[in-house]
Amino acid sequence: MIFRMAIHIEPARIADFHQVLADHPRYWGDRDLRSLHVVALVQEFGPTCLVARAADGIRGYVFGFVTPDGTGYAHLIATRDDTRGSGLGRRLYAAFAAAAVRHGARRMKAVTSVANAGSIAFHRGLGFAVEVVDDYNGPDRPMAVFRHERPVDLTEG
Question: Domain N-acetyltransferase spans what residues (predicted)?
Fold first, then answer.
């Protein structure tokens, strides 16, 4: 018999932020992205910083916010190594989009390195348009910029 653990998506707490950092390799492997994790995101934008919680801990998270022009910006999204391929990333994005809309978002945006083929495929699968923007992250540092004009569409499909 296969038992599926219940996963609940809810606003992140400061303790969750610190747990995510402590378990960083479970989400990001060998890539050290700890410098992109800023506790102020959870402190100041709590309703749009979400964790996917199960009995055995945080299975995934999305830290984001809504910009003054109505863009829901997903700064970081990750699922734990034992949860990948389960659809949790899509669920997290849908929950983030719903929270962002409640806080005035009319569109979505995210950014990743041009070498991150997994993230590019994931975002395209969600219906995001992708554009490589030269110098986005400084001179000679292009980034893949994702845009989705209707965040409610993320819950479909």
Answer: 7-148
